[in-house]
Amino acid sequence: MIQQRATDMDWMLKDLAESVPQTRHVVVLSADGLRMAQHGADTDTADRLAAACAGLQSLAGAVAQELPHSDGKMRLVVIEMDGGFFYLMAAGAGAFLAVLADEGVDAGLMGQRMRDLVARIGEHLSSPPRHDVGQPA
After folding, report:
1. Alpha-carbon torsion (67, 70, 76, 77), positive or negative
2. Domains of the chain in sequence order
3. Could you tell me if 21 and 34 are in contact, meaning their C-beta atoms sit under 8 angstroms apart?
4. Which ranges in the chain belong to alpha helices (H)?
5. Could you list the residue ranges that cross the membrane (predicted)?
6. Which is it for the CA torsion 69, 71, 72, 77, positive or negative?
7. How far apart, in Å, are the Cα atoms of 53 and each of 46, 47, 90?
C-alpha cells in the first residue's frame, strides 16, 4: 500500500522540486518518521531525513502547546542553516512534507508551492495509524 502510494506521488514531488529552483530533496513521511515517498534523495538519505523529521515535528508540537489558544499541532517549521534551508509542513492526518533546499532558494515560492501541493493532494499524503501486529485493525 505505501509502495503504491509512493509511486503515485513521484511525479507530484518531482513537480515541486522542478518548480522551485535550488530544491535538493523532497520527502513525504509519516508522523512516526517512516519515509512514504521521495524525490531527489537516495533511499538512505530520505530515510534519515524522515527519521529526523519525526523528532522535529514532535518538538514543534510541544512548543506550540505553550501558546494560548493553540491546538498544539505543528503547521510549518523552517530551519536556515549554512548552505541552505529545511522546510517541514503538516500534510494530512499523520503525514508531513519535508524539503531540503540550497542557500539561494526563494523561500516564499517554496512555501507557496508546498502549500499548493498539500492542498491538492493532502488526502493522498495521509498516513493511517498503524496497529500492533496481532491486534485487530
Report:
1. positive
2. 2-125 (3.30.450.30)
3. no
4. 2-19, 43-64, 107-125
5. 84-105
6. negative
7. 10, 10, 11
By three-state DSSP, how is residue 72 classified? coil
Q: How far apart are CA 39 and CA 23, in angstroms?
A: 10
Q: Which long-range contacts (CB under 8 A, 24 or more apart) does 112-117 make?
A: 113/16, 113/19, 113/20, 114/16, 114/87, 114/89, 115/89, 117/12, 117/15, 117/16, 117/91
Task: Give the whole-angstrom CA distance, residue 137 versus residue 120.
Answer: 28
From CA 89, how far away is CA 28, in angstroms rounded? 10
Q: Which cell numbers in the block locate residue 131?
A: 496497529
pLDDT tens readout for residues 43-78: 999 999 999 998 898 898 888 888 888 887 888 999
pTM of the model: 0.82
Q: Reply yes or no on whether the pLDDT at 109 is more than 90.
A: yes
Residue 5 predicted with pLDDT over 80:
no
Residue that the C-alpha cell 520527502 belongs to: 27
